[in-house]
User: Fold these one by one.
Assistant:
Number 1:
Amino acid sequence: MTLVAILSGAGISTDSGIPDYRGPGGLWRRDPEAEKLVTYDYYMADPDIRRRAWQMRRDSPTWRARPNAAHRAVAELEKRPGFAVRVITQNVDGLHQVAGMPDRKVLELHGTSRSVVCTGCHLRSSMEDALARVEAGEEDPSCLACGGILKSATVMFGQRLDPQVLSEAMAIAKASEIFVAVGTSLQVQPAASLAGIAAEHGARLSIVNADPTPYDELADELIREPIGTALPKLLAALRGPSGG
């Protein structure tokens, strides 16, 4: 059984219509103020920031997005005998699961935009229900259980990653025989360090990304082609006649 770890970043979802953050057309470049909407301290302190954040969530392209060929290729590899596939994703869009990856085999480092969490009592509920309340006229819906401030179940700027999720991700990186970093700049720590950890523990490291990354010199394979064609081709080669 070959353990294949996929570390995915925003670039894997751009073909699904979800813009990345730091690329030429990325959200932060187009609207630097948008970063405040996902910064914990600003969000908690300013009701106006929260109202704008709820509008951003309501209008998010995530709700129209469908998995693309790259997401589907990962899910297809997971179904093949001889491969254990684990996805470690920096994305919050849930498209790996929509494509068919079992939820338990996807580690969401930065949480998920498909749920909301109360900052007071920590109760989780569905984003769909919260957005229905926004549509009905609540500009800043509060927790129905305790009245606390609700936020998406994502890791905002200024928040720590879940230590258990990060610990699991590191264990997978260390144990992986093949590690593919796809659509990530490998600049945001600690997620980026997973590529280095995998390489140090003997994994074959492939980096599929349009731009150079700080970990390129550790890679066995650098692919600059479009992700929607490059990743399916790479993963198909793993399943080839040699059996991996």
Number 2:
Amino acid sequence: MTDSPKRVRVAVALLAGALALAGLCYSSWILEFVLPIDIDPVNTFLSELDAVGKPYRAVFATADKIVGVLLVPAAIAGLLLFARLRWSTIGWVALLCFGAATIADAMLPLHDCVPTPKTTCGGPRALFPQLHEPHALSSSLAVCSIAVAGIAFSVAAFRYRRWALLRTVGTAILVLGTAATVWMMVADDLSGHYALGIAQRIQVGAISLWLIVFGIAVTDRSERVSSARP
């Protein structure tokens, strides 16, 4: 017995809305330019915004939790609604992991120290800072998960000729986010300051835009759903 087309359309619309809203919430860091926050966006990481003791921690932590609460069920819905193809399945699982890691990010804020682009908890350029600060671990898991999701869904878009918007706008955003990530990884090992705060904001902004674009892409009615394919 298959689901009715109307129910599938409603479910896909809810999924798309969850993805887009998650993207909007993940861009809550933009509020740093509106709220009276004393932070240098050029040379500080976004983790400082919801560190313990920060005046607007509740705002940014709540936004991250909403992202996770939206993406975890959205990823499960994606697995149920769309055809079970290898690359898209990897993407949905990675997206679920990203949602879970984002919730952990909000629940494991910075405590003992605040890392800067050149100094991590445990000392300058500490080996494996994730072992010194749980927040660094959850953040690393989140970034790795969304990277896997972005790559997997992009491969699926091209290989299975699905989600046309991901093959154009989504790919451009993925390239932008990847460039910002490379910027951070390379510059972090160099002496001097290389505006790593800006690089991270471009990276996180790219993630937000990609989620919104993906939300729009899944509404493509030509997409095959699991009810139409065993």
Number 3:
Amino acid sequence: MTQVFNFSAGPAMISKPVLEKAQSELLNWLGQGTSVMEVSHRGKLFMEMITECDKDLRQLFNVPDNYKILFLQGGARGQFAAVPMNLIGAKGKALYLNSGHWSGMAAKEARNFCELDEISIVDKDENGVISVNRTDFSDIAEQYDYVHYCTNETITGVQIKEIPKVGNAVLVADMSSDIMSKPVDISKFGLIYAGAQKNLGPAGITLVIVREDLIGHACQATPSIWNYETQANSDSMINTPPTFAWYLCALVFKQMLAEGGLEIYAKRNEKKAALLYSYLEQSQFYRNYIAVANRSVMNVTFSTDNDELNAKFVAEAAEAGLQALKGHKVLGGMRASIYNAMPIEGVEALIAFMKKFEAENA
């Protein structure tokens, strides 16, 4: 069988050692003779596992002591609603920075729960190249209860690598597609959230890291499942959590620590992205439409500028074991998602295929 590399934007690859560990424990977790999916989520062993998971994540991501870590359900879309329900306060208004599809969707959902201003922070030049035009909002941010942005737009492949300046305002980040791909100064954020299915584990569980002083101010109509205070007081378990997804995230954190932590992963990710972008830059056949300063390290988008050739590329790549390279329906073209679990061999195999396809179709 041809070796398969999965370039899906999510659910995405999970590293082989993690999957092998889960496989070995699937029928007999910790000598219990049952799967982790079958034990009580309030039992001693599961509670010990989630306590260790919290500890490992704090060490790995350098989460300060005055932040709560929650593992919730509903994906990032759930947090599109939960954030305004929990954080809108005396000022009565939020600021949303729009850099693409997902930040725009977050603003659209938040309008159901609060008043907000929305500012586009990207430009497209005459050649179709997209760039981020502004990251300093310190002159206006403090009139809002919080400022929200998406660190990495998976559809276009735009990444905001500079943390926006917001003065003393609360900064909220949707980090779903680049969380834990590199070290981050958590203290600059009031709240970070991320769907797990890119870098953390499988779909079905969502990470929320929230500063403690922001907890306990939810509006009265907030459902208990979206109330950060209720969830924090219940160990993220006011209902039965997705236990297997939580367990897999815990295995991912263990694996990342064993491999040297986020500094190591950041170097790997930069190397993978640089390799692929370097090839795209010298090719006359493929185009990437993101300004160099804003090119995503996680999601590399490209196109032949011909829909028929794009479709042929995706089909032939899949036959060669390079899966899920079709771009999002909003944008088209191709997209290679090269999250933490993608080995550099996958990127090398993709480039080799791209060269072959270019030679045969240029």
Number 4:
Amino acid sequence: MIITLLSDFGSFYPAQMKGVILSRLQGKSGNIAGKITFVDIAHDIPAQDVRAGAFALLSTVRFFPPGTIHIAVVDPGVGTARRSLVVESGGQMFAGPDNGLLIPAARSLGRPVAYEITPHPGASSTFHGRDVFAPAAALIAAGQPPASLGPRVRPVDLDFGEAKKTAHGLEATIIYVDRFGNLILNLQRLPAQDMMLKGVRLKRARTYAEGRRIEPLITLGSHGFAEIAINQGNASEAFCLKAQDRIELEEI
């Protein structure tokens, strides 16, 4: 049984979530606790950046087998009226807040079905990852169906949108900036030619190394989205751009 974790928590809070899961499964028939494999997708998601977390989850889940349980927590609304969810899609399960975080990934696997989790009275109002989502994941790992955790609901959606054709080229949104400073766009195909951004030519390339050192380029990343990069450089810094900025790519 694989359980993944994704959060903006940093280093030590995820260990508490794992401890809760293992404690709740300890002694269950079939030694379930001993059969759990934890995979940490990321815990360095920018603080409270739901869209960044959603992109990281979307980019990862297709590499996991059916039966995987994903716990994802980027949750600026923790403790408020926002709902807690378990979502089932494509044979995989997701537990997390109802703020759109889970939905792009779930939708990429199939047709998501969401159920609301009712937090127990003793749950912390500031750490639902430990007190709500980890216990829900333990129940699912023990064989409890998601539908038993609460009523079916329609979840909050999150959509990265699509790049739009303009008179001069394409208008796109930066949906994620990775640690290399690459600007990942809501564009799932590579333009047919070199483009211009802020008056700078972007070389259409298959690999980063096709560009000269410090040459800007546009390529199709391993995640399936077009990205603007600088060979051995940082495109975010060079173009003074960040996630959620809208840009215009001009045809040459």
